[in-house]
From TrEMBL:
Domain of life per record: Bacteria
One Pfam family hit: DUF525
Transmembrane regions: none
Lineage, highest ranks first: Bacteria, Pseudomonadati, Pseudomonadota, Gammaproteobacteria, Alteromonadales
Biological source species: Shewanella schlegeliana
InterPro entries, per database record: ApaG-like, ApaG_domain, ApaG_sf, Uncharacterised_ApaG
All copies of domain ApaG, residue ranges: 2-126
Protein name, entry field: Protein ApaG
Length: 126
């Protein structure tokens, strides 16, 4: 792993969006806010994302795409980029994990892993 790759931190906060969910229809909407911190001394650019989403029934879905929320942000040294997105599950509990493909200022591509995080409705045991 390059020094730049090891200097990228990904923090996640999740929320259940009850007002837009319909448990009777097996529709549970969750938002997630991601903060990507560049702790290196050079600019990095987020090129693409890859998510693996698993619900409580073991159903997996994968999402690939350019950038995040329609952007391919460049993150300056010692700064952060934050965005909020969402996903719908058929169960009140699930897990997401993935990775970002990033490029450093020298044009070197690297992966920034996103550790597994939990999506759950309030009241479920952690």
């Amino acid at each position: 792993m390059s020094q730049v790759a090891s200097s990228v931190s990904v923090d996640v906060k999740t929320a259940y969006i009850e007002a837009q969910s319909s448990p009777d229809e097996k529709k549970y909407l969750f938002s997630y806010t991601i903060t990507i911190s560049n702790l290196s001394d050079e600019e990095i650019t987020l090129k693409s994302r890859h998510w693996c989403i698993t619900d409580a029934n073991g159903r997996k879905s994968e999402v690939h795409g350019a950038g995040v929320v329609g952007e391919t942000p460049t993150i300056k040294p010692n700064s952060s980029y934050e965005y909020t997105s969402g996903t719908v599950l058929e169960t009140p509990l699930g897990v997401m994990e993935g990775r970002y493909t990033m490029v450093d200022s020298g044009g070197n591509e690297f992966e920034a892993p996103i550790s597994a995080f939990r999506l759950s409705t309030p009241g479920l045991l952690h």
